[in-house]
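Weekly structure sync, notes
Attendees: PL (lead), two postdocs, one rotation student
Agenda item 3: pending single-chain targets
PL asked that the sequence for the first pending target be pasted directly into the notes so everyone works from the same version. It is reproduced below exactly as submitted, 179 residues in total.
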Amino acid sequence: MKVKIGLSGLPGSGKTTTILRIIPMLKEEGFSVGGVVTEEIREKGRRVGFYIKDIVTGEKKVMAHVDFRTRVRVGKYYVDTKVVDDLGTRALMYALENCDVIVIDEIGKMEMGSKKFMEAVREVLDSDKWVILTMHKKSRTPLLQEIRRRDDMRILEVTPINRNLLPFRVISLIKGEIR
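Predicted structure, written out during the meeting:
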């Protein structure tokens, strides 16, 4: 069974930055990588929302924004679950069929508004693929509790102290150099 790696940490700890460093390192090692990453949307130095981006195609759409008015709200952000349903689920399903490593950044409250995306996450986790995902350290949603209990899941905490070395550890785990 291939290892599943969960990068856990508080907001701002560097989870996405760590993932963005891991992806080119995996490609350099000859792995094909697919899935999704989230990117902040900033205006005048202020975070106002998030994009969801398909790693393979580069397609990105606004997933959450302070100016949206949708029924799903997380903090000050309104979430467009249709974007997560479409782009997020499509990217995961493509990666499941065509890639060696599947990245899911992130499994959080915004993404959990999409039932289709959550089903795709479960399908990815039940596959025999390498998976790297990010998750909020303190979130106790049912899906994250389920993920934390999995026998094939290795949870690594991202901190300002270890975030520069963590990508190398993740690569070593995937290559089977360390357990």
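Discussion points:
- Residues 4-174 form a domain with the Rossmann fold fold (CATH 3.40.50.300).
- The CA atoms of residues 93 and 120 lie 7 Å apart.
Action: rotation student to compare against the earlier draft before next sync.
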